[in-house]
Design brief:
By secondary structure, the protein is mainly alpha-helical. It has 13 helices and no strands.
Length: 409
Amino acid sequence: MWAGYFSIRPVRDTVATLLNDAEGPNAVANLWLYTAAFSILIVPVYGSVVARLRRSTFLPWIYGIVAALLAAVGVALNTAEFNPLLGKMFYVFISVVNLFLLSMFWSFLLELFDRDQTKRLFGVIAAGGSAGALAGPLLSDLTVKVVGENGILFASAASFVLAIVCQRVLLRIWGDRPGASTAADDRPIGGNWMAGVILIFKSPYLLGIALFILGISAVSTVLYFEQLRVVAATFTVTADRTRMFARMDWIVQSLTVVTQIFLTGRIAKRFGITTLLTLVPILMIAAFTMLAGYSTFMLFGAVFILRRAGEYALVRPGREMLWAPLDKETKYKAKSTIDVPVYRGADYLVAQFNALLVSLGITPAGMMMVGAATAAAWAGVGWWLGRRYESDAASAKLAARPIARESEA
């Protein structure tokens, strides 16, 4: 699945540069309003599906629909005679569906593993995802000049079909585990489509996760628009832009895989989830401060790559672990609400705030200092969430000890 998505992300970013070329530098920033709107609209639809259908039914169907739509775009897309309307539809679709699929994937895994298993296994699982995320852009980098953006879209559609097969295997293994009750475990979750929103507003813990997502969005958005501008100014041929976006992606994923295999699990076990959640925000404070004083393409590229690799290798597994002790309805409904509409809504608000500051005459160095302040707030929220998680885990272990002693007796 991740190979499929990450192979087309360079195509999406190339489409973004073409939209900015055709309609001005704010074309993509304005599109984020539609991304946020569709992200909000998808919540009640997804909530209704989760409430009424078994996971063994709706998970493969969702992947199948994504595969069909990617193939359709592959037939219609022509970068030589660029159609801005198709480009906008494709950009919004990919921007919405990537977070939705990511949230659904982790929700499923969180259902399979308990709190201790997530600490032990999520680094390795994330490394497997990153291996796919490395293979996807590497394939795009090596083949785009031969098969074009259309060929990449077809290959991505095929990978989602393959992901359906893998899902079926996992669901069968899950159903065959000792003590499993397949019918009960796979039953619809129930509840109403607004349950996710209600759960978030009732829980300070979930509100904290939402604020943490806002911090991720704010830091990444500042760097993302600068990336689009720099690549568009440097490369005029669309295939070269796609190759550059792909190259940055596979460098990120290479660093991510190595970190996840050798460091993520060890850091989580030795130093706890708080370190996973705060290390990258703290590093970004220093990185933004350096960019404010001395900004070159090489330094910006290094910061962009290290920030994204750190997010995938450390922040992503850490924030997914935050959901481990919560119930099934919260994992599917509240999680999808935070991961998709909250994330994309934050993207839009931050993009518009960024445009406002630029219109008011703030310098690039000033924007970097705004980024540093945002990273500091992000680190603070991550610290609070990590301490809350670890405190609850310690309380749960203490509560379980008398039961263990009684059973031994």
